[in-house]
Amino acid sequence: MAHVNIFDTTLRDGEQSPGVNLNGLEKLEIAKQLERLGVDIMEAGFPASSKNEFDSVKTIAQTIRTSSVTGLARAKKSDIDTAWEALNYAAEPRLHIFLATSPIHMTHKLKKTPEEVIETAVEMVSYARERFPQVEWSAEDACRSDLDFLATIIERVIDAGATVINLPDTVGYTTPEEYGFLFRYMRENVPNIDRVSLSAHCHDDLGMAVANSLAAIENGATQVEGTINGIGERAGNASLEEIAVALKIRGDKLPYTTNLVLHELKRTSDMVSKFTGMKVPGNKAVVGANAFAHESGIHQDGVLKNASTYEIITPELVGVKANNLVLGKHSGRHAFKDRTIALGYDLTEAQISEGFKQFKLLTDKKKEVTDDDLFTILVDLQTKNEDISQYELQAFQVHYGSGNRPSATVALRKPDGNVVETAGIGQGSVEAIYNTMEALISEKIVLTDYSLHSVGEGRDALAEVYVRLNVQDTPVSGRGAAQDVLEASAQAFLNAVNRVYVNQFLAQKDQVQL
Ligand SMILES: CC(=O)SCCNC(=O)CCNC(=O)[C@H](O)C(C)(C)COP(=O)(O)OP(=O)(O)OC[C@H]1O[C@@H](n2cnc3c(N)ncnc32)[C@H](O)[C@@H]1OP(=O)(O)O
Ligand SMILES: CC(C)C(=O)C(=O)O
Ligand SMILES: [Mg+2]
Which end of the chain has the smaller Cβ count within 10 Å, N or C? Predict the structure, then answer.
């Protein structure tokens, strides 16, 4: 069977999803989980795009050992130099350079002639190869490019030292037949094509990203790019879990292997969903909550008689556990710690103590503490920047009654350690809390989105809230979890505010150091 390399771009193209802004600690946790999942290459970010992005790519490059870490760069020396500064720590540093090749992009965006585009691509690929042992070159908007021009530029960048050629369907425009043809055409018409790995990168604007990726594999792609849960720019990227499971389940038609550890898929999907705030729809293939649920009587009857009547994928294959009940009221610290390790957490002793404290508090209120509950508590602990003091909720109280205007009293600890308290009103309880917190924080804060859902089932389930805010016109998202919906709402608001605060704090620190 032929092998296909998996290139994950959740942290780069995935993070380009509107409204998603991951902090460095969240990116690092996702990177570690992607390594456990067995991705061959992970694109950690676009180092030249900002100081925060540079720092997080560098930390990921320093941490990840078994997957290759790459970063994106424009065809510009300064982008390549910055990328090298961040990525040279990686076990196998790689660079991903892109330059558009379609007439639309060359004329209107780059304002370059096709000859100038060839010259720039060749010059930048050979410049990058002076540093990086592996250089991927992407022909942005390949699917709307002229085939012969594409074949010419590919031949030239391979001669300049590119080791991987990517043919992205940047705008999600192509069909499986056309995309398959593109790969066959390049295999047959670029004389030096066998010197490189050929990669597919699809977007889902017409809902064909996974089908297109599979067509590319059948026609000579040896690498496929995508994201977990299919998140990404606009309608998103090809969903890696769908591609990997399709290759596994339809090995009869698609005889290709990957290095992915399939039973890590569900956990990876859950983590990406939690950190990005992009909830996975129930009917999403492979990882949706309903992917293994059977509702109608005839289906239930069939499954009871033999699961293969209506199930082509077993839940265990992708790591969905039938019963994820874990610890209870009488569990001790050792059992708790063992469970955190089994869940894939790498916590310090201080984090374990804090997590155990929160777990015990939860067992007082909740009959069954599930893996999902633990995941929610621990994720917040692990991704909080303990080195920078931030806004903390000290206490709050809400008065609500039908016919009365809701009011809230909130006490906050500010980053300078002072505790401030005030009261305010709103049209509803959540708005009363948010208005009061806005007054205490003294910034202009606008709520642009709010969503609430429960973690698991039952009246005692944890509530999880996601918000999007504009803090002094900076868009930012935040999440909070608690047993009470109002407390979860308050925590989500502060989580978003703290993201802006931490970024400003780090930016000021960098300026002082300069
Ligand atoms: C298909 C994709 O997903 S491509 C990746 C897209 N991702 C992102 O853009 C996220 C990160 N981007 C950013 O933070 C910013 O856009 C930055 C820091 C990279 C650049 O910011 P700015 O310098 O303000 O430029 P801005 O984004 O407005 O415009 C892009 C410039 O890069 C040029 N450019 C675009 N692609 C390339 C390329 N592959 N190689 C070289 N130049 C390029 C554009 O022509 C434009 O140049 P111009 O200023 O001479 O007109
Ligand atoms: C940077 C490139 C590969 C990209 O994301 C695209 O073209 O979609
Ligand atoms: Mg893309």
Answer: C
Which ligand 1 atom is the nearest neighbour of the CA of 168?
1
Ligand 2 contact via 168 beta carbon (within 6 Å): yes
Cβ count within 10 A of residue 455: 18
What does the domain layout of the chain look like in residue ranges?
2-276, 325-382, 392-513
Write the residue with the smallest CA distance to atom 21 of ligand 1: 49
Predicted model pTM:
0.90
Range of weakest confidence among 80-89, 127-136, 461-470: 461-470
Tell me the two tokens of residue 60.
Answer: 């990921």
Query: Could you report the per-residue pLDDT of 474-490, keeping only the tens digit for each?
Result: 889 999 999 899 999 99
- Cα of 56 to ligand 3 centre, how many Å? 20
Residues 46-77 pLDDT 10s: 999 999 999 999 999 999 999 999 999 999 99
**What string of H, E and C letters represents the secondary structure of 95-146?**
EEEEEECCHHHHHHHHCCCHHHHHHHHHHHHHHHHCCCCEEEEEEECHHHCC
**Quick check: helix, strand or coil at residue 474?**
strand
Which CATH number does the domain 392-513 belong to among 3.90.226.10, 3.60.21.10, 3.30.160.270, 3.80.10.10?
3.30.160.270
Atom of ligand 1 nearest to the CA of 109: 45
CATH number of 2-276: 3.20.20.70
- Cα separation of 460 and 476, whole Å? 29
Ligand 2 mean position to 96 CA, how many Å?
Answer: 10
ipTM for the assembly: 0.98
Q: Residues annotated as binding site for Mn(2+)?
A: 13, 201, 203, 237
Residue 105 Cβ contacting ligand 2 at under 6 Å: no
Q: Is the CB of 140 under 6 A from ligand 2?
A: yes
- Asked whether the domain spanning 392-513 has the same topology as the one spanning 2-276, the reply is no
Instruction: Give the pLDDT band (50/70/90) at residue 322.
Output: low
